[in-house]
Amino acid sequence: MEQPIMIKKQNSDGRDVNVGFIDLPDEVVHHILNLQGAELRDLARLSMVSKRCRELCISTPNLLLSNIDTDDKFKSFVDKFMALRCLHGVWTVRFQIRWSFDEADAQADQYRAVETWLQRAVASGGGVANVRLQFIHLRKASQSQSQSHSFALPLCVMRCNSLRFLEVDAGNGVLKLPSPPYFATKLRMLILSNVKIENDSNIGALFSSFKSLEVLWFDNVSGIKSMSISSSSLQILSITSFDSRLCDIDIQQVDKLHDLNLLWHAKPCTAAAGRGGSRRSLTISAPNLRKFHFSGFAVDHYCMSEAPHLWQATIALLLRGVNQAAANKNNLDKILHSVKKATNLTIGVGFEEGMSPREQQHSLKMEDWESQNLMFTHQLKTVTVKLFDGVKEIELIKYLLKNAQELQAIVILYTSPMSSDFLTDELTKYKKPSTKWRLYSTSSYILNMGRVFHRKMVQ
């Protein structure tokens, strides 16, 4: 039989005495339970040991509710447990629910139960500081019948003045947002993941009352046609969308925003765009932006106000093929012009599968690059070039070696069929003495970066 855990401490006489786990101060026990990642079912077992254990379990400030690997009676136990916490006015620091829905008929009832638990957590003590919801919809619950059910985020949660962090992962379920106003709130971080917004709600209304919101994260949020975001406190914004319905993103009056990440991967409908029915627009006004990442298909309308403090910009675009050459060039010109102040610029361009241009069509010689009169070339200090085709990129490298007056270093990554001796012979005559270069095969470069990362991790 296992012996109970005992801790030694000195009494008033200076002698060591054994102290049981439950004899420790409440905050120490709660901290130990939190470090162990104790779920509510673990607390349920512990609460059966003694009255003292039951009191410790009820008063714990960190709760993790999960119905995975539990029976049908567990929900009833949670109802009673949350009612007891509310009765005793227990303050909740972290409240996490990980709930699996495996029967479509019971989904609405389980949603209402989760809503009730949230309301009791907010009503108990001083409210709740951190809320994390994760819903898992199994195959039987993801049928069309279950799609009519939605999870209604309680208004009391949005109005909770103690709430600092809120994350909702709806598991591709439908989320019903409460109607504004939300009054005063000190929410600092909001994350919505795998969420379908009900009735095309204007999620921009969420921010009108969030005067302290600093981080906003939308990961695979669908069901909306437009997204208008403005905030006087927002510092970090990340939007990932695969929804073809989203046509407009408008980011305005975000003077404190310094980090913007946009991954707009939904494939635009060319035919609908031609009829004016699905043209996509991106408008950004963030004067203090320092980091900007934009990847996905190019938009039809792009407008970004000047960002004089921009330090790092990454542009990774998918273009619509050579039949859209004029639109592609216009998009690239506007986007590159908007990031002209960036100290570090990474550019990646690809085409839709099966629509990449023929080699003869976009193969510029060094003289062609020189005729472009690219002003940013004179400011370049370090460059990394990946050789995919070989000939086309080599002409660009020649141009940079010859014309980039401030260029200090260039890293060239090439595929294994290409010889480093061939590259050296082709490029040496264009290299200035002040410019250093390094040639890597792609595989050896990745291996070297992995070793560097490993050394940093073990230090």
From TrEMBL:
Residues 22-60 form the F-box domain. Residues 146-290 form the F-box/LRR-repeat protein 15/At3g58940/PEG3-like LRR domain. It comes from the Eukaryota. InterPro entries: F-box-like_dom_sf, F-box_dom, FBL13/AtMIF1-like, LRR_dom_sf, LRR_FXL15/At3g58940/PEG3-like. It holds the Pfam family F-box. This is F-box domain-containing protein. It comes from Carpinus fangiana.
